[in-house]
């Protein structure tokens, strides 16, 4: 394994006695796109500012490119930062904004011109060099900020919510462009966002943060499909949390009593009979049938997933490509199920008041220890 390009080791930072970041450790691989994801105030910007050299940590060490950077000023680090507020020089044109760092570093005018053109081309602004920032749209200004940050080829680019000021469509487009840019350049990107979708679209790995600490690090798919705890499960997308108790073993599976039904579940951890657990299922993981149809059609009943709970439909919500079904299970638990439309039918399959059977395929659930 190659040496990580950034190693953050046990970093702690307090402001006025309050922890902003606590015991934070993370190794970032060369060339990866990694995202710090968490709600406002969880310490994302603080970590980025410590990496960028704008903030010292109280405890712990940071290594960039194999060397400890304690006390090393921002301009002497192999990292650049793109801020949410583009922070362009308003009185300079686009070209000069991007050229600024190169001129400070004493590059020749010929080299500066060539490198700036290259950078502007990468962010699709090759014809905008003579414009002032105020003559550009928000998206274009952010592109200038990105060009300025990549022009001197840093090892690591730090991006603090760079797209959050942009409207939805532009943000989606810029997400794809940024990802492409990262792949073209081969530079390590460290992105900060509170937007789960953004984190998932762009990242090789996501670091889910909560209150200055790391809750889980993994690929978007691992985070979504194998959340380490309830916090992560709830932060990324919708989740149904069923209550259960382990009742025994059967082969690789556990028998469990889940919302009053006896089911088989697969778990990645060790449990013993009597342990209380949360059984997590995404809305799209459930299989639901109207009871009447199951009773009338043995074929359907055979194909149906084995774990069976019963309940009633409260409401349906149109969502475009899918629709949501609110169901109350017979023990009073509410669940949310996502269904696809039947292309051949004018009406929805489910209606308020329908009695339904709810199941899922063994192994689709995530079983976590009870958190109280
Ligand atoms: N310069 C500062 N002075 C005092 N408190 C700060 C400062 N910077 C950040 N904090 C506090 O540290 C915590 C983490 O902030 P921050 O890293 O900005 O979170 P995020 O970027 O995830 O929203 C927050 O409680 C914030 O109020
Ligand atoms: Mg922030």
Give keywords.
Rossmann fold; 372 residues; six-stranded mixed β-sheet; alpha+beta; 2 domains; five-stranded antiparallel β-sheet; binds adenosine-5'-diphosphate; binds magnesium ion; 34% strand; OB fold (Dihydrolipoamide Acetyltransferase, E2P); elongated
Q: Explain this structure to me?
A:
This protein has 372 residues and is of the alpha+beta class. The chain has 2 domains: 6-234, 3-Layer(aba) Sandwich (Rossmann fold), CATH 3.40.50.300; 240-369, Nucleic acid-binding proteins (OB fold (Dihydrolipoamide Acetyltransferase, E2P)), CATH 2.40.50.140. 26% of the residues lie in helices and 34% in strands. It has 10 helices and 20 strands. The chain has a 6-stranded mixed beta sheet with strand order 6-7-8-3-9-10, sandwiched between helices. A 5-stranded antiparallel beta sheet has the order 13-12-11-14-20, with no helix packed on it. Helix 2 (94-104) runs parallel beside helix 4 (138-150) and helix 3 crosses helix 4. It is elongated. The structure holds adenosine-5'-diphosphate and magnesium ion. Part of the ABC transporter complex PotABCD involved in spermidine/putrescine import. Responsible for energy coupling to the transport system. GO terms for molecular function: ABC-type putrescine transporter activity; ATP binding; ATP hydrolysis activity. Keywords: ATP-binding, Cell membrane, Membrane, Nucleotide-binding, Translocase, Transport. This is Spermidine/putrescine import ATP-binding protein PotA.
CATH fold topology of the largest domain = Rossmann fold
> What's the total count of β strands?
20
- Helical content band: 25-40%
What is the distance, rounded to the nearest whole angstrom, between the alpha carbons of the first and last residues? 40 Å
> Which sequence of SSEs, written as H and E, runs from N to C?
EEEHEEEHHHEHEHEEHHEEEEEHHEEEEE
Helix vs. strand class: alpha+beta
Task: List the strand order in the largest sheet.
Answer: 6-7-8-3-9-10
CATH architecture verdict of the largest domain: 3-Layer(aba) Sandwich
Radius of gyration: 26 Å
The main β sheet shows up as: 6 strands, mixed
Number of domains: 2
What's the number of helices?
A: 10
Q: For this structure, what is the CATH class of the largest domain?
A: Alpha Beta
CATH superfamily of the largest domain: P-loop containing nucleotide triphosphate hydrolases
The proportion of residues in beta strands is: 25-35%
Poorly predicted tracts of residues: none
Bound molecules: adenosine-5'-diphosphate, magnesium ion
Provide mean pLDDT, rounded. Answer: 93
Question: Shape from CA axes?
Answer: elongated
InterPro entries: AAA+_ATPase, ABC_SmlMolc_Importer, ABC_transporter-like_ATP-bd, ABC_transporter-like_CS, Mo/tungstate-bd_C_term_dom, P-loop_NTPase, PotA-like, PotA_ATP-bd
Family: Belongs to the ABC transporter superfamily. Spermidine/putrescine importer (TC 3.A.1.11.1) family.
Pfam families: ABC_tran, TOBE_2
Catalytic activity: ATP + H2O + polyamine-[polyamine-binding protein]Side 1 = ADP + phosphate + polyamineSide 2 + [polyamine-binding protein]Side 1
């Amino acid at each position: 394994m190659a040496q990580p390009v950034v190693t953050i080791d046990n970093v702690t930072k307090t402001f006025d006695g309050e922890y902003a970041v606590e015991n934070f450790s993370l190794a970032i691989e060369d060339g990866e796109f990694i995202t710090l994801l968490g709600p406002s105030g969880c310490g994302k910007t603080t970590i980025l500012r410590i990496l960028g050299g704008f903030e010292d940590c109280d405890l712990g060490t940071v290594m960039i490119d194999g060397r400890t950077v304690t006390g090393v000023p921002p301009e002497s680090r192999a990292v650049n930062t793109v801020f949410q507020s583009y922070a362009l020089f308003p009185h300079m044109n686009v070209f000069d904004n991007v050229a600024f760092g190169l001129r400070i570093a004493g590059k020749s005018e010929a080299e500066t011109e060539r490198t700036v053109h290259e950078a502007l081309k990468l962010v699709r602004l090759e014809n905008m060099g003579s414009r002032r920032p105020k003559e550009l749209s928000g998206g274009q200004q952010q592109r200038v900020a990105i060009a300025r940050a990549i022009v001197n080829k840093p090892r690591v680019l730090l991006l603090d919510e760079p797209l959050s000021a942009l409207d939805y469509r532009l943000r989606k487009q810029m997400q794809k462009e940024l990802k492409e840019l990262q792949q073209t350049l081969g530079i390590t990107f460290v992105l900060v966002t509170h937007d789960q979708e953004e984190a998932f679209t762009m990242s090789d790995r996501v670091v889910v943060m909560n209150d200055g600490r790391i809750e889980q690090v993994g690929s978007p798919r691992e985070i979504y499909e194998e959340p380490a705890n309830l916090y992560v499960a709830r932060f990324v997308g919708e989740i149904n949390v069923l209550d259960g108790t382990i009742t025994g073993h059967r082969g690789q599976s556990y028998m469990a009593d889940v919302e009053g039904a006896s089911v088989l579940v697969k778990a990645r951890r060790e449990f013993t009979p009597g342990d209380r657990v949360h059984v997590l299922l995404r809305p799209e993981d459930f299989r639901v049938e109207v009871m009447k149809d199951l009773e009338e059609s043995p074929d359907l009943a055979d194909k149906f997933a084995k774990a069976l709970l019963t309940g009633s439909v409260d409401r349906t919500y149109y969502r475009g490509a899918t629709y949501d079904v609110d169901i109350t299970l017979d023990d009073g638990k509410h669940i949310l199920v996502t269904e696809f439309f039947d292309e051949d039918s004018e009406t929805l399959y489910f209606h308020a008041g329908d009695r339904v059977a709810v199941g899922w395929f063994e192994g689709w659930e995530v079983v976590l220890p009870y958190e109280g």
